[in-house]
Design goal:
heterodimer, A: 378 residues, alpha/beta, six-stranded mixed sheet, three-stranded antiparallel sheet, B: 344 residues, 13 helices, 38% helix, globular, pyruvate dehydrogenase (acetyl-transferring) activity (chain B), Transketolase_C (chain B), EC 1.2.4.1 (chain B), Pyruvate dehydrogenase E1 component subunit beta (chain B), thiamine pyrophosphate (chain B)
Chain lengths: 378, 344
Amino acid sequence: MLQTQLLSNHHFNFGRRGRDSSVGRAGKCDVHRLEEGPPLKAELTREQGLRYYRIMQTVRRMELKADQLYKQKIIRGFCHLYDGQEACAVGIEAAINPSDHLITAYRAHGYTYTRGIAVKEILAELTGRRGGVAKGKGGSMHMYAPHFYGGNGIVGAQVPLGAGIALACQYQGNNQVCVALYGDGAANQGQLFESFNMAALWKLPCIFTCENNQYGMGTSVERASASTDYYKRGDFIPGIRVDGMDVLCVREAFKFAAEHCRSGKGPIVMELKTYRYHGHSMSDPGVSYRTREEIQEVRSKSDPITMLKERMLSNNMASVEEFKEIDIAIRKEVEEAAQYATSDPEPPLEELCNHIFSNDSPLEVRGTNPWARLKSVS
Amino acid sequence: RLKNIVLGWNDLLCSKPMMVRDALNQAMDEELERDERVFLLGEEVAQYDGAYKVSRGLWKKYGDKRIIDTPITEMGFAGIAVGAAMAGLRPICEFMTFNFSMQAIDQIINSAAKTYYMSAGFQAVPIVFRGPNGASAGVAAQHSQCFAAWYAHCPGLKVVSPWNAEDAKGLLKSAIRDDNPVVFLENELMYGVPFEMSEESQSKDFTIPIGKAKVERQGTHVSLVSHSRYVSHCLDAAVVLAKEGIECEVINLRTIRPLDVECIETSVMKTNHLVTVEGGWPQFGVGAEICARIMEGPAFNYLDAPATRVTGVDIPMPYAKILEDNSLPQIKDIIFSVKKTLNV
């Protein structure tokens, strides 16, 4: 049961302004140890709106295609889908620069896309083909891109990594920030608090971000956390709680957070209240610990893509036909990507042992038996 | 062999005795100076000059940015070090002892060691994890474990175990310059031991390649293969055995992973007998691996007796001196094992 209200009065209500842009008005975000939070007004241009729509819809369709391929047993192992949470990834990317850094846990396909990897390379990685972003060697949880550090399988481990990336930014004096994401389940990990401590001590430009989708696998937040105010869990670190279903809210909050970090004030903790439609992973139907009614309610009232579309429509920023065109183009892109992902060959066995060490001379790797002397190159 | 004799004379002529801790200090100093991406973090490394004084003087010279004192949070700071390595820096992450690295072992294995492979060569992790490993003196069970076998088990890591000061300097410099995660196992009891340093080792570009063992003493009757502190024990045992006409070849592994099997095989094919010596526990250990590898290779047919492992006793480390002394290989244990292996 959803105890806390998902859609609080944080989302942006659009005022009339014109076709090319709209200014939204919103209630205040919940803040912790901050005099003021993100601005109450934000401008959304038509171009931005259509772009956010397109990216969110692409992530949505990509994830649904992954669901399909998994059920056909073309994708195997772990597959943690992101549908429902699109506004988080897209809003964050809209607020930061490509030269900023981002790291997340295993529900990572959306971020892999927003950080610059094509749908076909993501799907081909899921199907374990040589054209996958990690050449088929990583799988769902281990996809990387410039300034995107995965894709991490061990719950919580990515958070100290993110603080370390922020340390590198500070050390190099490049004015970049690192967004280090984790879920409501990981929020209780000890290594998070170790990271908070060091990030605060050393004023690291790290935006610690809890994507609170209400459930850590099958355990609701109330059953896992003594305090579900995840934006306050940084204690001495300022925090903001944001409506994670509203892409504009997310964007404005992260613009604020990035500025906070870049100005040398140290880290900040963000909580994005969001929701996942799928279960924890493809092996979880997702209905033993929550009701179908709850899932339906979020879909009908708070879907991030629908909300954005309806707002743009009601402000005459775009037409129904335009959205249809975008949808058709995305469907085609995802279909072609799936085609590629199912037809691309698997990685060659000769490359099994490659990439053990970087920048090293070739070495011999023992195979399954003493006569199997395999070769590894960097 | 001639080369070894010449080098031996060279050492005597140009030596400047240096303690292992100072060799490590010099290695870090030189690499910090050479590459501004290199930095050191760990507990007490800065203002305390290092819990074992290995980083003495570095904070004074390089300041807060490059020599960082951390809180007592191994999992957190090891993860931070790995993240910094991913984002372009070259951290040296010190564990006050490797016993505490257990708290951080997930970051070392899952975040550091495996990443280059998982990313198919996209994301390198140029990091050194260093600190004292294995038994000390009277520090009891929780502070005396040897982690060589645990880390050497894992692909994606290099595991280095220097013996003398020259090893320490050359191997640490190599480890820092290596673009991969290196676990650098020092030994607290060796920190204060002085060794003569060759002329060559005075250079700021002196490195010793990782993955190559060194024959410290030539011999014909038995190959004694060891790493870290126990190389000293082997050399001492060799002196005693020589008086009885048994000439031991002593091999200093220098690197545990990748293991220099060829060096061991060449030696065994000459001596026909193998005794491994280590401080760690016997089961699934370094000696066990060496024996298995010898069986799988050409040297097996040259063995005149089964290989013998000399190891720590298979118990948690006790405290009382008499118990502790009898929990670790002593010179008499090596001598006994050699004679048993040679059946004399």
